[in-house]
Write a structure and sequence with these properties.
Strand content: 25-35%
Oligomer: single chain
CATH topology of the largest domain: Jelly Rolls
Structural class: alpha+beta
Largest sheet: 7 strands, mixed
Number of domains: 2
CATH class of the largest domain: Mainly Beta
Number of helices: 5
Order of helices and strands: EHHHHHEEEEEEEEE
Low-confidence stretches: 1-5
Number of strands: 10
Length: 191
């Protein structure tokens, strides 16, 4: 799998570009996101990386996808096959979190598969996030703590969970080792 380590500065410039295209002032977008203007400024200037939940809220407010913020472009000539060597990991979402996108971008997609890799004690970030649709998760390696609307589930290798994604949710690795889980969301949330 190829690494797509988008530097925080590049991600920040892309976010700023989308914000400016939409004619939003930094303070206005920050207020919509529920974060301070200084926090958004630090993200845009590459001084900090947003959590997965913050990045999702940013992409939603800017009318785009997380994949687009990382430079992924949906092709009109969708390629159904993705070779292992072309699977990219985006590590700069937040420290210790890797997102491996398992399909090519496409406007017609109704589901999205990805692998979430969490280093020891990493999480997708607080606050929890929510989105439309449903999500299926199976743990491939290690264990995963899933918090759904304040209720905690501990999944070990081979365990699955299926939930309504409008529930507030976040994922944590509670061990020193790496955790990997396959997530399938519908509709797509990242690309």
């Amino acid at each position: 799998m190829a690494e797509n380590n988008v530097p925080s500065s590049a991600l920040g410039r892309i976010i700023k570009g989308y914000r400016e295209k939409r004619g939003l002032m930094l303070r206005d977008l920050a207020a919509k996101l529920g974060i301070s203007a200084s926090s958004l400024s630090q993200i845009e200037n590459g001084k900090t990386s947003p959590s997965v939940s913050t990045l999702k809220r940013i992409s939603d407010e800017l009318g785009t996808s997380i994949g687009a913020l990382f430079g992924e472009v949906a092709s009109t000539n969708f390629e159904p096959l993705m070779k292992k060597k072309n699977i990219k990991v985006h590590r700069h979402v937040v420290r210790g979190v890797g997102l491996y996108f398992l399909s090519n971008p496409g406007d017609f997609k109704v589901m999205e598969p990805l692998i979430l890799q969490l280093k020891g004690f990493a999480s997708t970030g607080d606050p929890a996030f929510q989105h439309s649709g449903q999500e299926f998760v199976i743990v491939l390696k290690g264990s995963l703590e899933v918090n759904l609307d304040g209720k905690t589930y501990i999944l070990k290798k081979g365990d699955c969970i299926y939930f309504d994604a409008t529930q507030q949710h976040l994922f944590k690795n509670r061990s020193k080792g790496i955790s990997e889980s396959l997530h399938v969301t519908t509709p797509p949330q990242f690309s």
